[in-house]
Write a structure and sequence with these properties.
This protein is mostly beta strands. It is built from no helices and 17 strands.
Protein backbone atom coordinates (compact mmCIF):
# COMPACT_ATOMS: atom_id res chain seq x y z
CA UNK A 1 0.00 0.00 0.00
CA UNK A 2 1.39 3.39 -0.93
CA UNK A 3 1.92 5.98 1.73
CA UNK A 4 2.05 9.66 0.95
CA UNK A 5 5.22 11.56 1.57
CA UNK A 6 5.22 14.89 3.32
CA UNK A 7 7.88 17.50 3.58
CA UNK A 8 7.26 20.73 5.38
CA UNK A 9 8.86 24.07 5.89
CA UNK A 10 7.09 25.61 8.85
CA UNK A 11 8.93 28.80 9.36
CA UNK A 12 10.68 28.93 12.62
CA UNK A 13 13.73 30.82 11.52
CA UNK A 14 14.69 33.59 13.85
CA UNK A 15 11.58 35.73 14.02
CA UNK A 16 9.23 33.43 12.74
CA UNK A 17 3.61 32.52 13.76
CA UNK A 18 0.75 33.10 13.95
CA UNK A 19 -2.44 31.37 14.48
CA UNK A 20 -2.27 27.64 14.34
CA UNK A 21 -3.96 25.39 11.83
CA UNK A 22 -4.81 21.70 11.63
CA UNK A 23 -1.73 20.04 10.25
CA UNK A 24 -1.54 16.29 10.51
CA UNK A 25 0.11 15.40 7.16
CA UNK A 26 -2.58 15.88 4.53
CA UNK A 27 -3.46 13.00 2.18
CA UNK A 28 -3.64 14.38 -1.38
CA UNK A 29 -6.26 11.79 -2.27
CA UNK A 30 -8.65 13.42 0.21
CA UNK A 31 -8.90 16.54 -1.97
CA UNK A 32 -10.27 17.42 -5.41
CA UNK A 33 -7.71 18.71 -7.90
CA UNK A 34 -7.72 22.42 -8.73
CA UNK A 35 -7.09 24.28 -11.99
CA UNK A 36 -6.41 21.96 -14.91
CA UNK A 37 -4.92 19.39 -12.56
CA UNK A 38 -1.32 19.74 -13.73
CA UNK A 39 1.13 22.12 -12.07
CA UNK A 40 4.07 22.81 -14.39
CA UNK A 41 4.41 26.58 -14.86
CA UNK A 42 6.81 28.23 -17.28
CA UNK A 43 6.66 31.56 -15.42
CA UNK A 44 6.30 32.77 -11.85
CA UNK A 45 3.31 31.95 -9.68
CA UNK A 46 1.77 34.05 -6.89
CA UNK A 47 -0.26 32.46 -4.10
CA UNK A 48 -2.57 34.52 -1.88
CA UNK A 49 -3.65 32.41 1.09
CA UNK A 50 -6.27 34.93 2.25
CA UNK A 51 -8.13 34.81 -1.07
CA UNK A 52 -6.93 31.21 -1.61
CA UNK A 53 -5.95 32.02 -5.18
CA UNK A 54 -3.03 31.09 -7.42
CA UNK A 55 -2.18 33.35 -10.35
CA UNK A 56 0.51 33.95 -12.94
CA UNK A 57 2.07 30.85 -14.49
CA UNK A 58 -0.73 28.71 -13.01
CA UNK A 59 -4.28 29.76 -12.15
CA UNK A 60 -6.31 27.95 -9.52
CA UNK A 61 -8.52 28.44 -6.48
CA UNK A 62 -7.68 26.44 -3.38
CA UNK A 63 -9.83 25.19 -0.53
CA UNK A 64 -9.73 25.88 3.18
CA UNK A 65 -9.01 22.84 5.31
CA UNK A 66 -8.84 23.56 9.01
CA UNK A 67 -7.34 26.98 8.41
CA UNK A 68 -4.85 25.87 5.72
CA UNK A 69 -5.10 26.98 2.08
CA UNK A 70 -4.81 23.69 0.15
CA UNK A 71 -3.97 23.41 -3.57
CA UNK A 72 -4.05 19.84 -4.93
CA UNK A 73 -2.90 18.67 -8.37
CA UNK A 74 -2.65 15.37 -10.24
CA UNK A 75 1.05 16.07 -10.75
CA UNK A 76 3.34 18.83 -9.55
CA UNK A 77 6.56 20.09 -11.13
CA UNK A 78 8.20 23.39 -10.27
CA UNK A 79 10.88 23.80 -12.95
CA UNK A 80 14.33 25.20 -12.32
CA UNK A 81 14.29 28.99 -12.59
CA UNK A 82 10.58 29.35 -11.79
CA UNK A 83 9.48 30.91 -8.49
CA UNK A 84 6.35 30.56 -6.37
CA UNK A 85 5.83 33.64 -4.21
CA UNK A 86 3.38 33.21 -1.35
CA UNK A 87 2.16 36.73 -0.60
CA UNK A 88 3.25 38.08 2.83
CA UNK A 89 0.36 38.88 5.13
CA UNK A 90 -1.71 35.91 4.00
CA UNK A 91 -4.02 34.71 6.76
CA UNK A 92 -3.45 30.99 6.23
CA UNK A 93 -0.53 28.60 5.90
CA UNK A 94 -0.38 26.84 2.52
CA UNK A 95 -0.27 23.18 1.48
CA UNK A 96 0.78 22.16 -2.04
CA UNK A 97 -0.21 18.56 -2.77
CA UNK A 98 0.19 16.07 -5.62
CA UNK A 99 -1.76 12.87 -6.26
CA UNK A 100 1.32 11.42 -7.96
CA UNK A 101 4.91 12.67 -7.88
CA UNK A 102 6.22 16.10 -6.92
CA UNK A 103 9.47 17.64 -8.14
CA UNK A 104 10.77 20.96 -6.85
CA UNK A 105 13.51 22.43 -9.01
CA UNK A 106 12.72 26.13 -8.62
CA UNK A 107 12.14 28.44 -5.67
CA UNK A 108 9.31 28.71 -3.17
CA UNK A 109 9.32 31.94 -1.17
CA UNK A 110 7.00 32.13 1.82
CA UNK A 111 9.09 34.63 3.76
CA UNK A 112 7.99 37.71 5.67
CA UNK A 113 8.40 41.18 4.19
CA UNK A 114 9.75 43.66 6.72
CA UNK A 115 7.39 43.69 9.69
CA UNK A 116 4.65 41.84 7.76
CA UNK A 117 4.58 38.13 8.50
CA UNK A 118 4.71 35.42 5.86
CA UNK A 119 1.53 33.48 5.05
CA UNK A 120 0.26 32.04 8.32
CA UNK A 121 2.94 33.92 10.27
CA UNK A 122 2.68 36.85 12.63
CA UNK A 123 3.83 40.34 11.95
CA UNK A 124 5.65 42.57 14.41
CA UNK A 125 4.73 40.78 17.64
CA UNK A 126 6.17 38.04 19.75
CA UNK A 127 5.44 34.37 19.98
CA UNK A 128 2.30 32.94 21.51
CA UNK A 129 1.93 33.72 25.20
CA UNK A 130 4.02 36.90 25.28
CA UNK A 131 2.85 40.55 25.03
CA UNK A 132 3.30 42.28 21.68
CA UNK A 133 4.87 45.32 23.32
CA UNK A 134 7.88 43.53 24.83
CA UNK A 135 10.54 45.97 23.63
CA UNK A 136 13.59 44.64 21.80
CA UNK A 137 12.75 41.06 22.75
CA UNK A 138 13.07 38.06 20.45
CA UNK A 139 10.38 35.79 19.10
CA UNK A 140 9.61 32.39 20.52
CA UNK A 141 8.94 29.12 18.70
CA UNK A 142 10.83 25.85 19.24
CA UNK A 143 12.69 27.61 22.05
CA UNK A 144 12.21 30.76 24.08
CA UNK A 145 12.97 34.08 22.40
CA UNK A 146 15.75 36.23 23.79
CA UNK A 147 14.76 38.79 26.42
CA UNK A 148 15.85 42.39 26.77
CA UNK A 149 16.04 44.67 29.81
CA UNK A 150 12.67 46.08 28.72
CA UNK A 151 10.76 42.89 28.00
CA UNK A 152 10.69 39.11 27.96
CA UNK A 153 11.02 37.11 24.79
CA UNK A 154 8.29 34.89 23.41
CA UNK A 155 7.80 31.50 25.02
CA UNK A 156 8.46 28.24 23.22
CA UNK A 157 5.44 26.67 21.54
CA UNK A 158 4.45 24.62 18.52
CA UNK A 159 4.42 20.94 17.54
CA UNK A 160 5.10 20.71 13.82
CA UNK A 161 3.93 17.11 13.67
CA UNK A 162 0.40 18.12 14.60
CA UNK A 163 -0.05 21.86 14.03
CA UNK A 164 1.03 23.83 10.95
CA UNK A 165 2.11 27.26 12.12
CA UNK A 166 4.24 30.04 10.73
CA UNK A 167 6.74 32.15 12.64
CA UNK A 168 6.49 34.77 15.33
CA UNK A 169 7.54 38.36 14.71
CA UNK A 170 10.16 40.13 16.80
CA UNK A 171 9.54 42.96 19.26
CA UNK A 172 10.05 46.58 18.22
CA UNK A 173 12.34 49.09 19.90
CA UNK A 174 9.53 50.87 21.73
CA UNK A 175 10.18 54.25 20.12
CA UNK A 176 8.35 53.76 16.83
CA UNK A 177 11.47 53.94 14.64
CA UNK A 178 12.69 50.38 14.94
CA UNK A 179 10.34 47.67 13.74
CA UNK A 180 10.48 44.01 14.64
CA UNK A 181 10.73 41.62 11.71
CA UNK A 182 7.71 39.55 10.71
CA UNK A 183 7.62 35.80 11.16
CA UNK A 184 8.15 33.50 8.20
CA UNK A 185 5.20 31.66 6.69
CA UNK A 186 4.16 28.02 6.94
CA UNK A 187 4.30 25.53 4.05
CA UNK A 188 3.46 21.86 3.61
CA UNK A 189 4.48 19.87 0.55
CA UNK A 190 2.84 16.46 0.07
CA UNK A 191 2.70 13.77 -2.62
CA UNK A 192 1.45 10.22 -3.02
CA UNK A 193 4.54 9.27 -5.02
CA UNK A 194 8.14 10.39 -4.72
CA UNK A 195 8.79 13.93 -3.57
CA UNK A 196 12.06 15.21 -5.05
CA UNK A 197 13.91 18.34 -3.98
CA UNK A 198 16.41 18.94 -6.76
CA UNK A 199 19.83 20.45 -6.12
CA UNK A 200 18.56 23.67 -7.73
CA UNK A 201 15.57 23.99 -5.41
CA UNK A 202 15.29 26.77 -2.83
CA UNK A 203 12.66 27.12 -0.12
CA UNK A 204 12.71 30.40 1.80
CA UNK A 205 10.68 30.84 4.97
CA UNK A 206 12.54 33.66 6.67
Amino acid sequence: MKRWHMASVRAALVMVVAGSAFAAPLNPNSFTVVGDGTFNPSSGVTVDTTAMTMSGGETATGVDWGGVAVFTFNSFTLPTGVTIIVTPGGSRPVALLSKSTMTIGGTINISASGSIGGAGGRGETLGLGAPAWAVNAGAGFGGNGGSSPLGSGGISYGNLQSVLVGGSGGGNNGFGDGRGGGGGGALELGSIGTLTLAASSVINAN
